[in-house]
Amino acid sequence: MARAHPPAEYAALDLLATLVAVVDGQGCIRFANHALEDAIGLSRRNLLGVDLADWLMQPQLWRNALDGAQAHEYAVVRYDTQLRRLLREPLPVHLVLAATESREQRVVEMLPLEQQARQEREERLLEQAQANKELIRNLAHEIKNPLGGIRGAAQLLQLELGDRADLAEYTDVIVHEADRLQALVDRLLAPHRRAPQWGEVNIHEVCERVRAILLAEFPRGLEVVRDYDTSIPEFRGDRELLIQAVLNLAHNAAQALRERIEAGDARITLRTRVQRQVTFGKRRVRLALELHVIDNGPGVPEDIRDRIFYPLVSGRDGGTGLGLTLAQTFVQQHQGLIECDSRPGHTDFTILIPLS
């Protein structure tokens, strides 16, 4: 498709992955960005002067929205509709029309509903992480003080018992379990105690370190595949925190692959890519690192799929439920997030971190 050069004042809109149109007061298209051209299947030369209503499945809804914006009845109008496309099925979109000072021009933003759902999911993940942080701090405060008292009392009781070995084993259990709970609380608090040590990070050095650790622990039956985009630049980050985050994901995958490791056909893939025009909550970045940890295991149990990043939630017998929580925390300290797509035979944990 031939690309027409946009007017200077609209040039920045071509950099957006969101579908954007500039319309006049009657709803006729004065500009369409590259994303909208691609979605509809027509160049902007052919779209100029066309009524946007012709490309919407519910034109009357659009008319009502435009009339309301023209009359300054609404600051912002949002609604779901469908965008017509050449030779393809209509595209479900979330349309946003914002009122401006000018009655001669309106900017229309259309987010494919899949993208809208992703933004909402990312916002929920960020809110969940903040709630987890508060929960952990409160939990630690409530546990640490009485835990110290219990342990101290058990030790004093040990001294009073003297040679009563038959009773001393009970105080030993109390001390041991108190220490185990203290270690659990310390692990929960660890990400919030240590400030990140920022430096230049090569993500493939991180992946190679994780790969070496995995193969040392599982020397037979597990293949760790490299699928790297070597053009990815170095970025500012904490190398050790990122190693721990990726290792937690990879180790979880290896634990889920126990049966396939015994059968000799277990596989974990470390894949790196660059993604452009990525949103993190309500923030858009030009470039982002996309690191996948993919395994061919049984998948995340459906009953915990929406809760896997909560602390103490585990789908494995004997698991602490901290690995994914800590990994998400470490990645969020880099302004990024972790997403999960899982089905039997294919689980993909994706780390997204801004590069610019």
Annotation keywords:
356 residues; alpha+beta; Beta-Lactamase; Helix Hairpins; Heat Shock Protein 90; 3 domains
> What is the name of the CATH superfamily of the largest domain?
Histidine kinase-like ATPase, C-terminal domain
Q: What is the CATH architecture descriptor of the largest domain?
A: 2-Layer Sandwich
Strand residue percentage: 25-35%
User: What strand line-up does the widest sheet have?
Assistant: 2-1-5-4-3
Overall SS class: alpha+beta
Large-scale geometry? elongated
Order of helices and strands: EEHHHEEEHHEHEEHHEEHEE
Count of separate DSSP helical elements: 9
* CATH class categorisation of the largest domain: Alpha Beta
What does this structure look like?
- With 356 residues, the protein is of the alpha+beta class.
- The chain has 3 domains: 8-117, PAS domain (Beta-Lactamase, 2-Layer Sandwich); 119-193, Helix Hairpins (Orthogonal Bundle), CATH 1.10.287; 199-354, Heat Shock Protein 90 (2-Layer Sandwich), CATH 3.30.565.
- It has 9 helices and 12 strands.
- The protein has helices spanning 34-40, 44-47, 59-70, 113-161, 165-193, 203-217, 239-256, 258-263, 323-332; strands spanning 19-23, 29-32, 76-85, 88-98, 106-112, 199-201, 222-227, 235-237, 266-280, 283-295, 337-343, 346-354.
- The strands form 3 sheets. A 5-stranded antiparallel β-sheet has the order 2-1-5-4-3. A 5-stranded mixed β-sheet has the order 7-9-10-12-11.
- Strand 4 (88-98) and strand 5 form a beta hairpin.
- Helix 4 (113-161) runs antiparallel to helix 5 (165-193), helix 6 (203-217) packs parallel to helix 7 (239-256) and helix 7 (239-256) runs antiparallel to helix 9 (323-332).
- The chain is elongated, with a radius of gyration of 27 Å.
- The mean pLDDT is 83.
- GO terms for molecular function: ATP binding; phosphorelay sensor kinase activity.
- This is Sensory histidine kinase/phosphatase NtrB.
- Residues 138-356 form the Histidine kinase domain.
